[in-house]
């Protein structure tokens, strides 16, 4: 079966087939869709901020798992921790919809959010338009009263943040959209029919996706649809052909790989493969490490402990490894129901931004080198830009000498630390590689407190 594009969305197939006078026309097949070049801005930037915010931010409780799946863990999967939490804290007839009135967002200041995200050193953000609970953070024409304008904030959260990002920053604005809805009766019925009926897709999922693209023109469409149904159910290739051919963002938009079961790490604009994905070598296609500062949850958790959050050292180590292996990192924060971004998230974002303010040249616009991490010092990672190789050093050498096996120096090689004015002395290793002598730099003269970056120029193997 060819999906819903021809049988349920005749208008979608029509715009795909209409010719234009020039330019490539992508067909609704994976072979054609996957041939589209990735817009260059996405690979250049390396760092994005993910924001998970919705009705799930009201209970904001996650028990050894993510809080944004609260509804289905409570009502559908009936996990004891979630069932007992509701039993002990809410009246017996309380429904998930009752949480929506407390999704107040009274402290949501989109301009303050924009400033914070800009300060992080990121190049793009991805904001939740709709998660699996079905609640839309914009006044959707097809969500009736289950949206942020009709209940809860009574504001267009997507629109306000979009305006702030595009007027106050130089960040790219992207939107996350969950195709499925766990407890939507139409979705449940289509599932029971083994995805041979398309009532949910025709009346809810795809109209919402077209709506946010036409209304907010996101630079990224981050789909979450690899959960249960195949892409032929969703009509994913028909939508992507329209997105790349005729949508208002056709030339700039970037998409991921979660368009149906078994599509991850195979199709789409770039790969995410799985949450917190970290390959062991450079993948054959551009990829993204989609990860969380809170180690266990995407949405805010009131019951999180300090040790549940990545330290700045851990966060930078993940980021550096990701970029060295050719990926981008999409770093998630979960705002509270009132619109406050907790201080622990703010601190991490500003710490990353301060580090990027010094070392950004070793990140933005770089490519993987022939070696990603050093065999002699495994916590030293490499990136490359033009003829310069960057060595990103996670651990300061205890004896003052950094011995690396990968760089092959010449008589003209120079070694410098970004942010430090002095030049580093070095020696060629007899067995190959280089010994770099670290001077005794006073702590107040160090450019950063962690993850130092050396520039290696005029290498034999650059």
Largest sheet: 7 strands, parallel
Structural class: alpha/beta
Question: What is the third-level CATH name, the topology of the largest domain?
Answer: TIM Barrel
Average pLDDT number: 94
Strand count: 15
Number of helices: 14
How would you sum up the global shape?
globular
Rg, Cα atoms, Å: 24 Å
**Number of discrete domains:** 2
Q: What fraction strand?
A: 15-25%
Q: Mind telling me the CATH class of the largest domain?
A: Alpha Beta
Approximate helicity band: 25-40%
Task: Give, in spatial order, the strands making up the sheet with the most strands.
Answer: 5-4-3-2-1-7-6
List unreliable stretches of 5+ residues. Answer: 1-22
Domain Glycoside hydrolase family 29 N-terminal: 25-361
Subunit structure: Homotetramer.
InterPro entries: FUC_metazoa-typ, Fucosidase_C, GH, Glyco_hydro_29, Glyco_hydro_29_N, Glyco_hydro_b
Keywords: Glycoprotein, Glycosidase, Hydrolase, Signal
Characteristic key phrases:
462 residues, alpha/beta, TIM Barrel, Immunoglobulin-like, five-stranded antiparallel β-sheet, 14 helices, 15 strands, 28% helix, globular, disordered N terminus
Structural summary, described in words:
The longest helix is centred in the middle third of the chain and has 18 residues, at 199-216. Strand 2, helix 8 and strand 3 form a beta-alpha-beta unit. This protein has a 7-stranded parallel sheet. The radius of gyration is 24 Å and the shape is globular. The protein is built from 14 helices and 15 strands. It folds into 2 domains: 4-362, Alpha-Beta Barrel (TIM Barrel); 380-457, Golgi alpha-mannosidase II (Immunoglobulin-like, Sandwich). The chain has helices at 4-7, 10-17, 30-33, 40-45, 70-76, 80-89, 110-119, 157-168, 185-192, 199-216, 231-234, 236-245, 312-324, 343-359, and strands at residues 47-51, 124-130, 172-178, 220-224, 254-255, 287-292, 327-333, 380-385, 388-393, 401-404, 414-417, 423-424, 426-428, 434-437, 452-457. Residues 372-456 form the Alpha-L-fucosidase C-terminal domain.
């Amino acid at each position: 079966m060819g999906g819903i594009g021809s049988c349920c969305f005749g208008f979608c197939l029509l715009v795909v087939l209409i010719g234009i006078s020039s330019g490539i026309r992508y067909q609704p097949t994976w072979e054609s869709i996957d041939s589209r070049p990735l817009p260059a801005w996405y690979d250049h930037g390396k760092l994005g901020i993910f924001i998970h915010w919705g009705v799930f931010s009201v209970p904001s409780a996650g028990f050894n798992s993510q809080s944004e799946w609260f509804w289905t863990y409570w009502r559908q999967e009936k996990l004891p921790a979630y069932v007992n939490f509701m039993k002990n804290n809410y009246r017996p007839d309380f429904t998930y919809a009752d949480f929506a009135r407390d999704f107040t967002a009274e402290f949501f200041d989109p301009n303050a959010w924009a400033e914070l995200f800009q300060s992080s050193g990121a190049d793009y953000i991805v904001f939740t338009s709709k998660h699996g609970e079905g609640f839309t953070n914009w006044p959707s024409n097809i969500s009736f009263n289950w949206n942020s304008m009709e209940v809860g904030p009574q504001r267009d959260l997507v629109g306000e943040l979009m305006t702030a990002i595009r007027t106050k920053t130089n960040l790219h604005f992207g939107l996350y959209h969950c195709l499925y809805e766990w407890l939507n009766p139409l979705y449940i019925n289509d599932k029971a029919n083994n995805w041979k009926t398309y009532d949910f897709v025709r009346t809810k999922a795809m109209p919402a996706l077209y709506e946010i693209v036409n209304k907010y023109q996101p630079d990224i469409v981050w789909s979450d649809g690899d959960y249960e149904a195949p892409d032929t159910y969703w009509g994913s290739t028909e939508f992507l052909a329209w997105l790349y051919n005729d949508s208002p963002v056709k030339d700039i938009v970037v998409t991921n790989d979660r368009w149906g079961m078994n599509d991850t790490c195979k199709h789409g604009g770039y790969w995410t493969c799985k949450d917190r994905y970290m390959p062991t070598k450079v993948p054959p296609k551009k990829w993204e490490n989609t990860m969380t500062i809170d180690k266990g949850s995407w949405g805010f958790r009131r019951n999180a402990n300090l040790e549940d959050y990545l330290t700045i050292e851990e966060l930078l180590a993940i980021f550096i490894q990701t970029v060295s292996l050719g990926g981008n990192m999409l770093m998630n924060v979960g705002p509270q129901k009132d619109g406050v971004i907790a201080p622990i998230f703010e601190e991490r974002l500003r710490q990353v931004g301060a580090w990027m303010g010094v070392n950004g040249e070793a990140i933005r616009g770089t490519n993987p080198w022939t070696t990603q991490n050093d065999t002699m010092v495994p916590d030293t990672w490499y990136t490359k830009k033009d003829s310069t190789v960057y060595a990103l050093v996670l651990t300061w050498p205890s004896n003052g000498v950094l011995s690396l096996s990968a760089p092959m120096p010449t008589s003209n090689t120079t070694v410098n630390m970004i942010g430090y004015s002095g030049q580093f002395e070095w020696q060629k290793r007899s067995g190959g590689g280089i010994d770099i002598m670290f001077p005794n730099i006073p702590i107040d003269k160090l450019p950063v407190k962690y993850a130092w970056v050396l520039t290696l120029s005029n290498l034999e193997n650059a």
